[in-house]
What does this fold into?
Amino acid sequence: MTAGTLAQVDAVMVGWGHASENPKLGDMLKAKAAEIGREINFVGPTSDVMRILGDKIGSTLVAQEAGVSCMGWNGDGLPANLDENQKIPEKDFDAACLHSVDEAIAAANRIGYPVMLKASEGGGGKGIRMARDEKALIDAWPQVLNEVTRRPL
It folds into this structure.
């Protein structure tokens, strides 16, 4: 960020990797531009778009709203009702989450086994479990919750 302001660039394109996927970068550029009194453009998706597409649930809601074929999941058919700030309202996001093992069982019975349980937050394979049947799902539920989730599944 400092190198860009020292070089008096008009735009920043971070390429690939962690920074290119971080919505905070666009926010920081906007704040820095306001601080120095000139425009610095971020070449790439806006921070709001990155927030939605970087989220497993949000990106799937947007994909199915756009008519992209998605595999069966507990949020089948739910809309991505973007608000005026291009965000998925919390109530809509929450509707696409599982909140109890009973909801998970009902979704798995509808979709069919095997199923994968995945925390909505977390990465690197943590918080993901396959369940081939209801007993495995019941056993996996607390493991997924205890590993990484900060939100419902």
Summary: The radius of gyration is 19 Å. The beta strands are 11-12, 41-42, 115-118, 128-131. The longest strand covers residues 115-118.
